[in-house]
Design goal:
about 35% strand, 5-stranded antiparallel β-sheet, globular, 7-stranded mixed β-sheet, about 10% helix
């Protein structure tokens, strides 16, 4: 390859060599250009910096889930790690004497500037402001320190200079991001990069700027149209600059800079032809339910309540057959016992307006009472120790990230907000005295990056200051969406999950930790709940329930036999299609019959009039297309029953969810497949993440043994694919890829390289910055360069772009362009009022702020370039319930605007999506032997792809749903 993306280039002190960090490889080439050869023995190395004598290169390397500072000789020998610990150490630069390095680190909380000697002595903190202070650079004489800081009290960045006496002054400011300052040789100027990412209708932009310290002025030093990369610039003695832009290394001044040509060789490994998992789509044999949610032991330790297949169940320990407590087509979840065991609280959307409410069931009489009727959904109820109150959280429709803690007084029925919002916290655990709430929250390390740790948040109910608690510093507790820190009823211990296993820790009366945590299990553990005597804990271990005693750590299995089977209609159906788009061929077939036996297509043949012995579906004046896939969406169970019907109403018969709480995803998969709720088929997984995380469904992995437990979970829960995320170490990604293929399932990642050397099957999004400054797959200006294109093309990896469909404004704009209105889309009648009124949808419905998405992308766009290179791009939206279905339609129209024909766009959403999910032998096209998933629409989607909105009927798994049935309500789910 001859181009790079968002890489840095640094000239050696003797002017003979240039070091670059291309796709995380540290490489060296002659100063005049030539082959960029890899420095061997490194993993992911970024931001090289030459020592003053040119004998060493300092760089940041990602290892073990964190960035650390390393040095190495240019030939790869003498590799030494300089910084250590559970912190991100970034952006190293040398002190002029060559004896120490400056870097930014969040080891003390937010990011500050630090110094460390090559002797690896304890780092010394140089800045201490509460704002992030990053990108250090020492003046040539070593007397002044330049760095970038957050602007105080406002958005944006400032460039500051601190003199030898500690005095600090601001020399430049911007409302955009500022990065990587570099001093001129005479110490009179500082060059830096300013950039701003793109947004809907607005292109991202970057520039090289120079501040004159004498004049106090800052000016752009970028040629018109130059796509400057976010890499540290470097001054030459003659006042020129070495920098990277437009895929190239450049030397001189912008506008007249000369290109230094380079070549680089990469080795890629396409995904192997592994033996694929066998999906059981056609059998009616009984299957063991694996989507077991919220198991909680009764106070007397004799029973376990849990949710599965849309309902609540009660298991008597010792009798493997549970008793169904609720029986309806809605979502009934999150059971919680009262302290005396006489009542069971839970949440349900049974009111039928798309909102989860709180219910309480009297266990003796079976009588139930709804206790809330809020606009927003409530979640995670837990009784107080005295049984007089229930703690819960409420979801904000305007921001699905936001959950607010409340306490409901059962006597007065008054809900009281306890604290501000947090990002999807865990279930609450009361203090034993009932005076405080404890729940696991995301504890961010800094404003700079979104990642942090799962930690306990202790909120006193008297209004005093809350505090963060953690039993193990520098480690995340387990899946936040699934696991809290659960205090024993006697207040003497807390149970928690870390590294995939169960732990306990002794606590004082105030909930503080007073001993070293005790590891209780070696097997997977989730959702611990205490018996009322505080002597035992019931927990979930992937697909089984277990109980452990606190005194001697003995473990017993709790047998559970709950079965379900595929809901497959019996008999023959014949669909008379006026026009058929089969998903493979790019033109219609006219006047054909599609013969369906049970849930399988057995023939596609010319129309035969007068057929008998079959249910006839007249689509003679309509178009039939395969059911579409939505390949990247996050559908949370708190959104209730409606999501399945919404998906089907838009013609989406298959969903790939790359990131779900595993049991939650399985519950939806089994409920939809069994017909308990109407919905598409679901391909689901977990979300394997490094030690720092963001999303509530992330599975934090701190070690290779912890990774092996997560891979065991994937096998036992029968994942359909594996998804790895932003902070997972490369060695762990490699092992995950091997394990996925051993299981016969694909793996997808956010990483392009080195993922493409491991045989990863797919990659999500066009760009992700993840753990680096900006994406190395797409420039700030939105361009793809040769390194990325070749890695995509030669690895045969599939790319789910999530380009524009995530935003309902996009689909609304396309409809307006055609003289139509989003508010007239009939599927909107299925959405809950709270969703329609949310900021996500209201502007799109009111057609406010509509803009052509093409205005915000490069020309040609990344999607166009991927198509031209033959890279397969199955569509997904990375949206949630508020844009389910409509987002895919917007994404497909965007594809058409980027050069796809409507038929090619539809093929990407059908057959090529089935290829992504490794089920093209059963799904994605309409042909004999395929499953009967198809959509009957009005109009001509091969002329106007948005005509797929005109859904008349949907056939999923051989079952017919008219649009009117889908819009009518939840009764499509069957009671059993």
């Amino acid at each position: 390859m001859t181009e790079g993306t968002n890489f840095s280039a640094m000239l050696s002190p003797d002017g003979s060599r240039i070091a670059i960090d291309l796709q995380g490889d540290l490489r060296i080439l002659p100063a005049g250009g030539g082959e960029a050869k890899v420095v061997p023995g490194l993993t992911e190395a970024r931001l090289p910096s030459w020592s003053p004598d040119g004998s060493l290169l300092a760089f940041q390397q990602y290892l073990g889930g964190y960035w650390h500072i390393f040095v190495v000789r240019p030939d790869g020998t003498g590799l030494r790690q300089i910084t250590f610990g559970a912190a991100d150490d970034r952006e190293p630069v040398w002190a002029p004497d060559g004896k120490s390095l400056l870097f930014s680190s969040d080891r003390a909380g937010n990011f500050d500037v630090w110094r460390v000697g090559l002797d690896r002595s304890s780092p010394i903190q140089l800045t201490t402001a509460p704002q992030d202070e990053i990108y250090p650079a020492l003046s040539p004489d070593g007397a002044r320190l330049a760095f970038v800081a957050e602007a105080e009290g406002e958005r944006g960045r400032v460039l500051k200079v601190q003199d030898a006496g500690g005095s600090v002054r601001t020399v430049a400011s911007a409302s955009n991001e500022m990065a990587l300052p570099a001093w001129s040789a005479d110490g009179k100027s500082i060059a830096y990069i300013e950039y701003k990412g793109g947004s809907l209708g607005t292109k991202g932009a970057s520039s090289l700027r120079v501040v004159d310290l004498g004049k106090g002025t800052s000016a752009t030093d970028t040629a018109k149209g130059e796509d400057v990369f976010v890499g540290r610039p470097q001054w030459s003695k003659d006042g020129g600059l070495l920098y990277t832009a437009d895929g190239k290394i450049k030397r001189g001044r912008p506008g007249s800079a000369k290109v230094i040509p380079f070549t680089a060789e990469f080795t890629v490994t396409p995904a192997p032809d592994y033996v694929r998992k066998v999906h059981d789509f056609t059998s009616t044999a009984a299957k063991q339910a694996k989507g077991i949610l919220n198991p909680v032991v009764s106070p007397d330790g004799k029973q376990v309540a849990f949710a599965a297949l849309g309902d609540l169940w009660l298991l008597t320990i010792g009798d493997p057959k549970p008793v169904r407590l609720t029986n309806d087509p809605f979502v009934d979840i999150e059971p919680a016992w009262s302290p005396d065991g006489g009542k069971l609280a839970y949440t349900s959307d049974r009111r039928g307006v798309g909102t989860m409410d709180l219910y309480v069931r009297d266990m003796a009489s079976g009588k139930e009472e709804r206790l809330t009727e809020t606009v927003e959904s409530v979640a995670s109820p837990v009784f107080s120790p005295d049984g007089q109150r229930i703690a819960l959280t409420a979801l904000a429709s305007d921001d699905w990230h936001a959950n607010f803690p409340y306490v409901l007084d059962l006597k007065t029925k008054v809900l009281r907000k306890i604290h501000g919002w947090t990002f999807k916290p865990s279930v609450v655990s009361w203090s034993s005295d009932g005076e405080a709430l404890n729940y696991v929250v995301l504890a961010n390390k800094s404003h700079r990056f979104r990642h942090g740790f799962n930690e306990i948040f202790n909120v006193p109910l008297d209004g005093s200051s809350p505090k963060h608690l953690t039993p193990t510093s520098g480690k995340s507790l387990g899946i936040r969406a699934k696991n809290g820190g659960i205090y024993s009823p006697d207040g003497r211990h807390m149970a928690f999950v870390e590294d995939g296993v169960l732990w306990t820790v002794a606590t004082n009366p105030h909930g503080g930790f007073i001993a070293t945590p005790r590891r209780m299990t070696n097997d997977l553990a989730d959702q611990p709940s205490w018996a009322g005597d505080s002597k035992s804990i019931v927990y979930q271990s992937a697909d089984v329930l277990k109980r452990i005693w606190l005194d001697d750590a003995r473990i017993e299995d709790i047998p559970l036999n709950l079965e379900w089977s595929n809901a497959i209609p019996q008999g023959r159906k014949v669909v008379h299609a006026g026009r058929l788009f089969d998903g493979v061929n790019l033109a219609y077939r006219d006047n054909v019959d599609i013969v369906i036996d049970n849930n399988v297509i057995t023939a596609v043949e010319p129309h035969q009039a007068g057929r008998t012995g079959a249910q006839l579906i007249d689509a003679s004046k309509k178009v039939v297309v395969p059911g579409m896939f939505e390949n990247h969406i996050h559908n949370f169970i708190i959104n209730g029953e409606q999501t399945g019907r919404i998906a089907l109403s838009f013609g989406v018969t298959s969903i790939r969810e790359p990131g779900a709480e595993p049991s939650e995803g399985l519950e939806a998969k089994e409920a939809w497949a069994s017909g308990r709720r109407a919905g598409p088929r679901l391909f689901t997984t977990g979300l394997i993440e490094g030690p720092r995380l963001y999303y509530p469904m992330s599975l934090p992995v701190n070690s290779m043994p912890a990774l092996e437990l997560e891979l065991e979970r994937a096998k036992r829960l029968d994942y359909d694919f594996i998804k790895t995320y932003e902070r997972l170490d490369n060695a762990y990604l490699k092992r995950s890829t091997e394990a996925a293929h051993e299981m016969g399932i694909p793996i997808t990642s956010h990483d392009l390289y080195p993922a493409t050397t491991y045989g990863v099957d797919a990659i999500e999004h066009l760009a992700t910055s993840d753990r680096i400054i900006v994406s190395d797959r797409l420039s700030v200006g939105g361009k793809i360069y040769d390194d990325v294109m070749q890695l995509y093309r030669q690895s045969n990896i599939m790319v789910v772009p999530t380009a524009q469909g995530y935003n309902p404004l996009v689909g609304s704009y396309y409809l307006q362009r055609q003289g139509r209105a989003f508010r007239d889309v009939k599927q909107l009648k299925l959405l809950a009022p709270r969703v329609l009124a949310s900021r996500y949808l209201k502007a799109a419905i009111d057609a406010e702020g509509l803009v052509d998405p093409d205005l915000g992308v490069a020309v040609p766009s990344p999607v166009t370039r991927l198509k031209q290179a033959g890279v397969v791009t199955p569509p997904g939206t990375d949206t949630s319930f508020f844009n389910l279905g409509f987002g895919i339609v917007g994404e497909l129209q965007y594809y058409v605007d980027q050069g796809f024909t409507p038929a090619e766009a539809l093929k990407s959403a059908t057959y090529q999506s089935a290829q992504l999910n490794k089920v093209e032998d059963r799904l994605g096209s309409i042909a004999a032997g395929k499953l009967a998933d198809m959509v009957i629409v009005d109009g001509d989607p091969l002329a106007n792809v948005m005509d797929v909105l005109n859904v008349d009927q949907v056939i999923k798994d051989g079952r017919i749903f008219t649009f009117e049935q889908l819009a009518a309500g939840a009764q499509l789910g069957k009671a059993q």
